Amino acid sequence: MRTKLVAVLTLLAAMRPAAAQQAEPDxxxxxxLASQLCTACxxxxxxxxxxxxxxxxxxxARNPEVTVTELHGWIGPRHPRxxxxxxxxxxxxxxxxxxxxxxxxxxxxxxxxxxxxxxxxLEAAPPERLGEPIEPxx
Length: 138
Hints:
The structure is a single chain. The chain is built from 7 helices and no strands. The chain is mostly helical and 138 residues long. The N and C termini lie far apart (90 Å). The longest helix is centred in the N-terminal third of the chain and has 19 residues. It has a domain of 84 residues: Cytochrome c-like domain (Cytochrome Bc1 Complex, Chain D, domain 2). It is elongated. Helix content is 47%, strand content 0%.
């Protein structure tokens, strides 16, 4: 009995450092990851790089009607047109940490600048995703 207790305690002691070493969510890593994965639909950062097909991250994060739980629930089925992302829990936590910085920040936004060409993701998007063409009115 004593041998089993010592073995269990040794196992628990060995597991504790691994759990203690888990990194805290990193907003900078979340910004970098979101800049790679989300700019086909969203403007992710203050630099205004991305698409305006969907609301900018800052607008979503600062919306008073969006709770933190809803803000962090973006990876679920309620997110429209979310590609099948295979994110680790750490990656999702990093993006959530970045969203939290937008929610809490009081940063003045950079002015929008017009671009001559649409983002590459929109050029490659199938027409059914972009909607019907708008006919000019006379």
